[in-house]
Structures are given as C-alpha cells and as structure tokens.
Amino acid sequence: MSTSATTHDHKKIQKWAEEREGVPSKIKNTGKEEDSGVIRIHFPKHSDADDRFEEISWEDFFKNFDKNNLDLLYQDKKADGEISTFHKFVERKK
Known about the structure:
By secondary structure, this protein is of the alpha+beta class.
C-alpha cells in the first residue's frame, strides 16, 4: 500500500529529495529578476526534459516555496514497495 504525507519542513523536504537524487530547480523563463519562477524538484535520472529545468540553490528554492505558502505532498514508496519520486506542491493549510 502506498501512502502520502504533506510537509513544509525544509529539512525533511531536502532530505526526501536528496535521497532520490532530486535537485531544487526552476522551469526556465518563468521568473523575473529576483523571482525564481516556477519551482520544481527535478530528478535528472528519471527525466528526458532536462533542458526545461535550471538547478537553483535550496535557499532560493525555499524562499520561493515559503513566499507562495506551499506544502509538499509526497510519497515515500509506491504500492509495490519501490522508492517513489511522486510529489506535488499544494497550498499550505492554515
């Protein structure tokens, strides 16, 4: 059985991503000057669209994440027990 969890804890998010070789990224050409634009956790080993993503620092990632009042909805393992990279950003509940 697969389950999901939600968090906005920076250390937990970074640990989850790095355990799966994920990197903080933005989608190119979506931000202006100081704005990172649309952020993502990118998993280069599982993607063939690397040219759409630009790696950013965790600091810049979390600045945008908090500014937009986001939580990370994520899955640790798939139903078959395999490590999962499933995640999405959702509006933080008050």
